[in-house]
Design goal:
Blueprint lengths: L5 H17 L10 H8 L6 H15 L2 H16 L8 H21 L2
Helix pairs in contact: 1-2, 1-3, 4-5
């Protein structure tokens, strides 16, 4: 398996550590938390629930909610404030994208 790049590895390390700690596991000395999480799955940690916890922790680490909010603001408050600057099909696509992003924001809020 290919090694993750440094950014991905760095982003994933803290969320993996927090999920491990929540389940009473700690990485071995010198072992990455991501590797330890992989080994711990199925050994006292339910796979699906734990991967969901890990995904939420990564989303929180990356501030995905803030990125979605910023994109909604850009489209709704700046671009659609001047719809005459865009073709009707572009306006329709922006409205569709806003609806999709609002749905994503609701899902992230869970």
């Amino acid at each position: 398996m290919a090694e993750p790049n440094a950014f991905v590895a760095g982003v994933a390390e803290d969320p993996a550590r927090s999920v491990l700690e929540a389940h009473g596991f700690t990485p071995e000395v010198g072992e990455s938390a991501v590797a330890a999480l992989g080994w711990a799955l199925g050994e006292g940690i339910a796979r699906e629930a734990t991967l969901r916890e890990f995904a939420h922790a990564v989303i929180d680490t990356l501030n995905v909610q803030d990125l979605v909010d910023a994109q909604i603001e850009l489209l709704a408050e700046y671009k659609l404030e001047y719809p005459q600057d865009y073709e009707p099909d572009e306006v329709a696509r922006m409205r569709t994208e806003i609806a999709r992003l609002e749905s994503l924001r609701e899902e992230l809020g869970e």
